[in-house]
Amino acid sequence: MFMNSASVKSTEIGTADVRDHKGRGWVYSDTVKEHFFNPRNLMLEEVDETEYNAVGRVGSPACGDEMKMWLKVDLSADKIIECKWRTFGCGSAIAATSMLSVMVTENSGMQTEAALKITPRDIMERLDGLPNRKIHCSVLGDKALRAALNYYFRNSGQFHRVIVEGARVIDSQTNVTDRDIEEAVLDGADTLEKVQQKTKAGIGNPDVVAEVEQLIRFYKEKYYG
User: Which strand (E) or helix (H) includes residue 112?
Assistant: First the structure.
């Protein structure tokens, strides 16, 4: 995590007040701090990928982070028994992925079907929350997990279980996709006007405005509840 433009101050209640160069602050929970300073299941050594039957690699346009995840899945039980990861990312991304790795391996491991149902909101609840501006960081590990499980499904011949997450064009005039709208909402655009400022969706094509608004509601509910 780069700290050249931010300072961290511990408070009496055990949270961290992180301020950027403009003095704006975010408050992190004790759980977030614990998983940032002591990340679980972080891959530190050289990786022999032949030891893992699920590998996923993703990047997040919202914050520029990248992540790679390795899973060991018990084929007979269809259960994740080990989860390792490595990231170039911020403290929130590190904490969120650390917590995710715990969630999928605790209690002798999680069924793959259950793991696919984990949402960023579930991760944030286990972290006791994240600042709104950092919610997109909880998505990175979630996407890496899905990518790794798709790798596992393909390599084990379970093609019907592969999750297709391709972007869909919403506004053909501006080539704005549903993924663009998702990233805009994750970046704090919670109204049509704010999404249009970021994406230009529907500005010259009013026929798509209703669908854009529907997607905004969907992503707000998904990430913010």
Answer: helix 112-115
The C-alpha atoms of residue 70 and residue 210 are separated, in whole angstroms, by: 40
**83 included as an active-site residue:** no
74-130 residue pLDDT tens: 999 999 999 999 988 778 889 999 999 999 999 999 999 999 999 888 998 899 887
Stated pTM of the model: 0.67
**pLDDT single digits (tens) 8-49:** 333 333 444 544 444 445 577 899 899 989 999 999 888 888
Burial of 72 per CB tally in 10 Å (0-12, 13-18, 19+): middle
Give CA–CA dist 140/91, Å, rounded: 12
Which of 18, 54, 58, 63 is catalytic? The answer is: 63
Backbone angles phi, psi at 24, to 5 degrees: -80, 140
Partnered with residue 15 across adjacent β-strands are: none
Categorize the per-residue pLDDT at 60 as very low, low, confident or very high, splitting at 50, 70 and 90: low
| Side-chain-side CA neighbours of residue 225 (13 Å) | 10
Tokens of 36: 């940032």
Ordered domains of the chain (ranges, CATH): 29-161 (3.90.1010.10), 169-224 (1.10.10)
The catalytically annotated residue of 90, 95, 137, 216 is 137
- Taking the C-alpha atoms of residue 114 and residue 78, their distance in angstroms, rounded to an integer, is 10
Decide: 134 and 127 in contact? Cβ < 8 Å: no
